[in-house]
Amino acid sequence: MSLTVLLLALSAACCIGFGFVLQQDAARRAPLGDFLSLRLLLDLVRVPRWLAGIGCMVAGMVLGALALSQGRVSLVEPLLATNLLFAMALSRWRTGCRLGRQGWAGLWLLAGGVAAFLLAGQPHGGRAEVDPVRHWLVVGVVLGLAVLLTAHAKRSRMSSGPALLALAAGLLYGLQDALTRVSGQRFEEGGWAALAGGWQVYGVLALGVVGLVLVQSAFETGTLRMSLPALTAAQPLAGVACGVGFLGDRLQTSPAALAGEAAGLVAIVAGIVLLGRHPAMPVGTGAATERALAHR
Question: Could you say which DSSP state residue 33 is in?
Fold first, then answer.
């Protein structure tokens, strides 16, 4: 792993983590009628704190794209999952809450899981998969799961809805990262003409808008603890699946390596869940919860 890719990916994670905290603080005050609607973005665009959060997220996406242009998706995605650490750092500064045993356990599980996955898998490049059936099968599975999760979230918005929407958004963001790498390769090979001539760049934009609506709807109807861990866990898993599925990423496949990769992924998810449930994470209620409490 090059130092440049490491610094770019961690800088991207920092910006994204800070951006999520600022966005949720603004989105939780949005009208409930904007749920899963573009009107939600139109309302939030008038909120300075939300715009600051979006600015941080855009900066993170640019840095992440630069990291993806120089490193494999299966290498960069686990590093981007550390955005939860930076989100927690900002939340801890705002709340003054100490890490404690749970916080330190989550931190070490997340950091150790990333290190274990990278050391065991040793992601490296290979020939990109050109079989269109395999390519579209991976894309279709990711999109299909996101649609199913969103449909179920619409029926359970007050309970598991925020977590389901965050899972769907994480899947879309993982696919978006894979298409970002393909778009970068097209630009390197043929410039702006090649970039505009491929569908991948338009897919990146569409996934970005849809994912943004899903994330803000999750932030609107639930606490950050309910949504951010699911979002952070789903994105690297989808990104690694796409990287191996059709971008030519290769991982070590010996029994010992597979065991290490699996243990690393489990540790990443466990660390994300522990950090997401830590008291330092904001627990401010969303508009839906506030309204329900007001009618009691």
Answer: G
